[in-house]
Amino acid sequence: VPRGPPQRPLLKLPPHPREVAAVGSMSTQRNHYLKPVPLRLPPGIPEFPSHQRRHTLPASEFRCLTPEDAAGVFEIEREAFISVSGNCPLNVAEVQHFLTLCPELSLGWFVEGRLVAFIIGSLWDKERLTQESLTLHRPGGRTAHLHVLAVHRTFRQQGKGSVLLWRYLHHLGGWPAVRRAVLMCEAKLVPFYQRFGFQPVGPCDVSVGSLVFTEMQCSLRGLAFLRRNSDC
Ligand SMILES: CC(C)(COP(=O)(O)OP(=O)(O)OC[C@H]1O[C@@H](n2cnc3c(N)ncnc32)[C@H](O)[C@@H]1OP(=O)(O)O)[C@@H](O)C(=O)NCCC(=O)NCCS
User: Fold this and answer.
1) What are the phi and psi torsion angles at 113 (to 5°)?
2) pTM (2 d.p.)
3) I need a labelling partner for 232 at 20 to 30 A (CA). Which of 50, 126, 210, 212 fits?
4) pLDDT at 226
5) What is the pLDDT of residue 85?
6) Would the CB of 185 count as within 6 Å of ligand 1?
7) Quick check: CB of 60 below 6 Å from ligand 1?
8) Count of CA atoms in the C-beta half-sphere (13 A) of 171
């Protein structure tokens, strides 16, 4: 039977006088035991964390969103829209609804695992946006409706919204059935979307409280050459 190391008492007891007397003669031996010896772990037990491969999150990642991302989406929406106007394009249930039905029409930008910008879209099958288009996904539709683009406050004005929108349009370019992208935005953002090829169609039929919107559309035909290189 292999003998293990001597059991230590659970309570620290005062040393026995014989033990005290023996300390002098054992000192050399004790020094030997105090010498550092490399610890060998049994097979199957991982080494110290400093020796393990680091599992770091990617510095920057683009991917389609999942319903599990809804909380992160809504956190950005809350700051970007609700704190400003009391409304937001999609509530949490609607975010989950679209990320369940058509996650492939969403795109998120994650920095070290944290969502910093996103677009949520669905398909629409009519010429113009209506109240219904705010909550519906029409799988046979040839129009991608961008419900919301938002960038986390601390990451704005750094080009992230522009990069994400370019990547999203590029992604849509990989879908031969999708002919155009549409969105509604406040008048102040019309010039921003025009940079990406969106053109104003006219005032949008949909209003939210006192907010009115311009409807914008962008043809994806010009992006046909990107179809072979679609992302997510
Ligand atoms: C609009 C938004 C997505 C732009 O993303 P961003 O990463 O900050 O934008 P970029 O750095 O790529 O580009 C900056 C451009 O955005 C436009 N822009 C951003 N915020 C704007 C605002 N409040 N009013 C007018 N234009 C604005 C401008 O054209 C700006 O360019 P400029 O600085 O030369 O004027 C971002 O500001 C945001 O999330 N805002 C709150 C949510 C929102 O309004 N979303 C749009 C819903 S339709």
Assistant:
1) 85, -5
2) 0.79
3) 126
4) 55
5) 86
6) yes
7) no
8) 22
